[in-house]
Each structure stands twice: as structure tokens, then as C-alpha cells.
Specification:
Distance between the termini: 29 Å
Strand order of the largest sheet: 2-1-5-4-3
Structural class: alpha+beta
Radius of gyration: 26 Å
Strand content: 15-25%
Shape: globular
Number of strands: 12
Number of helices: 21
Oligomer: single chain
CATH topology of the largest domain: Heat Shock Protein 90
Number of domains: 3
Largest sheet: 5 strands, antiparallel
Length: about 450
């Protein structure tokens, strides 16, 4: 689904044009309606130039035709001339914003889409949906994964009978939704979290159904992005390695081992998704960051999906509690941009996933205080790490729509416990924090056999 197709779902006027500017048969329903209103007879208008459709002033029509014609001659000029194209137009009494989206397949102009958005006062619902679209368009592949995985979590809400597990799932849904600006759902889930504290899963069944309905209504126009297209994703490094082995006449048994691993989950792509989520969270705050990833082309079984999804809470904590404001960082002699690193490697016994930041570090004294208040051991460093990932313990001083309940990190531990894994944390005041997640290779082998 292209960006133009997504906007078409909102009723925007979309025309798809040949490289020379002539209309094609493909256009949105609202585009057809505009043609009928602009011209007495819409049949036979497929040879009409787009400039004649979206401009009324003869001088503007000729100027637009000239600019668009240069794309056919030299597509590289597009980058220089995009600022010269009109951004608004008025047709009759209606005003529209304009957006030109070229299709440069193979480095040459294969055509382009023209979007006209009617300038009206939008309703809150439409405004939110437009913000969601903008978020989804930043990375379609990452967005597909978000929609599919969050959809699975929400569909299964009614099947969770354990209060603690439901609280963690709701917190994950809220965190994921916040990354994509689905603020109405964030508020709804936050309210349900409040009610769950004094109730039970059975006592909030109606509210869970409301969440499912709201999710369906909000995302129904994006259903195409949730469809499983059975594609196998390959990183550029994996492709290059495979070509190298083929050219070097490497033993076929070695190549077969690599090919048989391709249906597994690429850690590099998981890191790309996490990095995208982290960037979105930071964009909604006053903090800035850079991300580095390293995964050695590792692939893991799909059975780790719950673990990957739970890491949204680590990312949220890094932004909310770990990284300082740019001005504070500069006063400490740090770069205004925080640095977050994702890495993974296979050791002799484990898959080790590491996430680090160069922020303020964990306030272990506060964790010890919170642990004692919750009746948890707090004497040793291991006790404090255990407390950090225990339900009800949070480094935040107040509950917000994004953090502070002490639920998120416990969701990560719950997923690791299912995998027989463990957590190690290194943190130095003023220098940052390193989270290390260990998953036994034996667990990965069993998951692969079961898949």
C-alpha cells in the first residue's frame, strides 16, 4: 500500500499521472467527482494534462506544465524544483493543499501521484487519523509489524484471566499506540488500567470489549497493512554473503544451512523496528537521540515475539527516565543528543541482547526505597535488579499516560521467564545504563523445532 493509497482512504483527491502529465484511469472516487464538477463531460478526459485539472489560471497552468515536463527530461531536477511546485490551489470556491509524489522506479520517472486535500476544519477523529497516517508512513515495514503485533495483543485481551498479565498487556498496548499517535486509544487504555487496579479481569470485560471496538474502528482503514503476505525478509548483508558464497563455489551444504535460516526472524530488522519506536517516543518529548545497532546477521525463531514486543517498556523508560534534556546534557559536557545502542550476539550458551544509553543512570537509592516500600529484598545489587523488574516498582514519582505504574519492566521479565532467560543491569550515575538480556540457545533450538 503506497502513501498515496493511504491518503486515498481519507477521501482525498488523488490522481495518478503518466510521466508526461496525462491522467491515467486510476484515480480516487473524490478525484472522479472533482473531474465531473470541473468539466461538463468527464469521458475522454484521460488525455487531459493534470495541470488543466488542478489549476484554473492560464498562466499557472502553463507554468506547472513546464515544471512537470522537466521531470521527464531529467528526473534529478525534481529535487531542485520540488520547492517551485505550488502547494495550494483554488478551484471555484474550494481551496486545496497540493502534494506531488513521483514514482522514480529504476531512477527514471515512471509517473507520479498528485494529492489534493480540501482545506476545511477537520474533526478531532480525522485529525488523529491523519497523524496516525503520518506516523505509519515513516516506515511502512515497521508499521506493518506494529499493526499486526498490536492487533494480536488486543484480540487476546478477553482471554487473559490473570490480573497481573492483563495489566502488563494493557501497558504494552498503550505504549505501542503512543508510538503511532493513537492518543484516543492511549487515553482509553490508561483509564482501563486505573479501573483494573481496583477490580479484576472479569470486572472490566465490557471495557476490554470497548478497547477492541475502538482499535478496530481506528485501524480498519489500515487492515491491508496487517495482512500476512508470507514474505521472507533478507538484510543486505545476508544477500551479499549469499552471493559471495555462490560466486566462491562454497560447499552447497553450507549454503543450504544459511538458506534454511531465512524464514527465521532477522534480529537486524527487529532492531530497526525498536529504533523506529524509540525515535517516535523521543519525538513526543523534548529529548533528542541517536541510535546505533549491531546484530551480526543473527536470526532467531518467531517464538521470541513476546520478548521483542515487551521491550517497548525499556525504550519508554530510557526516554522518560534515562536520557537528560538537551540543555542538561550540554551543561554536563555531553552531546545534546543521547546515544542508544542495540546489539546482539550468540555466546557459547546464550543469545545476548543488549540495550544501552548514555543518560543519567539508574537511581539505585530510589529503587532500594521503592523495594522496601513494596516489601521486597533490597540488600544486594541482585536484589535491586530484581526489584527494578518487579511489578509495582517504578523510578517515576507519578503515574502518567506513558509510565509510572511499575508495570512495564515486569512485562519484560515475565517474557524472559517464559524463555528461561535472565537479566543483568549495569548502571553508573551520570554515565548511563546497560541492559543485558540472556536467552538460552537451548530454548531457541526448542522453539525452532516447534515452529
Amino acid at each position: 500500500m503506497s502513501s498515496a493509497s493511504l491518503y486515498e482512504l481519507f477521501g482525498d483527491v488523488i490522481y495518478y499521472c503518466e510521466p508526461d502529465g496525462r491522467l491515467t484511469e486510476r484515480m480516487s472516487e473524490s478525484g472522479k467527482h472533482l473531474l465531473r464538477s470541473r468539466f461538463s463531460e468527464s469521458s475522454g478526459l484521460l488525455d487531459t494534462h493534470i495541470a488543466d485539472v488542478i489549476a484554473e489560471n492560464p498562466a499557472e497552468v502553463e507554468q506547472l506544465k513546464f515544471l512537470l515536463s522537466t521531470w521527464v527530461q531529467d528526473f534529478e531536477l525534481f529535487g531542485m524544483q520540488i520547492t517551485e511546485l505550488p502547494t495550494r490551489t483554488k478551484l471555484g470556491e474550494q481551496s486545496y493543499t497540493l502534494d506531488f509524489q513521483p514514482d522514480n522506479a529504476g531512477g527514471t520517472l515512471a509517473g507520479y501521484a498528485v494529492r489534493l486535500k480540501l482545506e476545511t476544519s477537520s474533526t478531532p477523529q480525522n485529525s488523529e487519523r491523519e497523524q496516525i497516517v503520518e506516523s505509519l508512513l515513516k516506515d511502512i515495514e515497521v508499521s506493518k509489524a506494529f499493526l499486526k503485533e498490536t492487533n494480536e495483543l488486543i484480540e487476546n485481551l478477553g482471554e487473559i484471566s490473570d490480573k497481573s498479565s492483563l495489566a502488563k498487556t494493557l501497558h504494552t498496548v498503550k505504549g505501542n499506540s503512543g508510538c503511532y499517535n493513537i492518543q484516543s486509544l492511549v487515553k482509553t487504555v490508561h483509564t482501563v488500567e486505573d479501573k483494573l487496579q481496583g477490580s479484576s479481569p472479569e470486572g472490566i470485560r465490557d471495557e476490554l470489549i470497548d478497547i477492541q471496538k475502538q482499535w478496530k474502528e481506528t485501524t480498519e482503514i489500515f487492515q491491508g497493512l496487517m495482512e500476512n503476505n508470507d514474505m521472507i525478509l533478507m538484510t543486505r548483508q545476508e544477500y551479499d554473503d549469499l552471493v559471495m558464497h555462490l560466486m566462491a563455489n562454497t560447499d552447497w551444504s553450507e549454503i543450504l544451512v544459511s538458506v534454511l535460516r531465512l524464514p527465521m526472524d532477522p534480529v537486524a530488522i527487529r532492531f530497526k523496528r525498536l529504533a523506529s519506536q524509540l525515535t517516535r517516543i523521543a519525538e513526543n518529548s523534548a529529548k533528542k537521540l541517536k541510535v546505533e545497532t549491531q546484530s551480526e546477521s543473527l536470526r532467531v525463531p518467531d517464538g521470541l515475539k513476546g520478548f521483542w514486543v515487551s521491550l517497548i517498556h525499556i525504550l519508554r523508560n530510557i526516554v522518560d527516565h534515562g536520557l537528560e534534556e538537551p540543555s542538561e546534557r550540554e551543561s554536563l559536557g555531553k552531546s545534546p543528543d543521547g546515544l542508544v545502542k542495540f546489539s546482539a550476539e550468540e555466546t557459547e550458551n546464550d543469545l545476548v541482547v543488549r540495550i544501552s544509553d548514555d543518560g543519567r543512570g539508574i537511581n539505585w537509592e530510589k529503587i532500594a526505597e521503592k523495594a522496601r516500600g513494596a516489601g521486597l529484598p533490597s540488600e544486594t545489587q541482585d536484589d535491586l535488579v530484581e526489584a527494578l523488574f518487579s511489578e509495582g516498582v517504578s523510578t517515576g514519582d507519578q503515574v502518567t499516560t506513558s509510565s509510572g505504574r511499575g508495570v512495564g519492566t515486569s512485562a519484560v521479565k515475565e517474557e524472559l521467564d517464559k524463555l528461561g532467560g535472565r537479566i543483568e543491569v549495569e548502571s553508573n550515575k551520570g554515565k548511563g545504563t546497560l541492559f543485558c538480556f540472556f536467552i538460552p540457545l537451548a530454548t531457541l533450538a526448542n522453539l525452532q523445532l516447534a515452529s
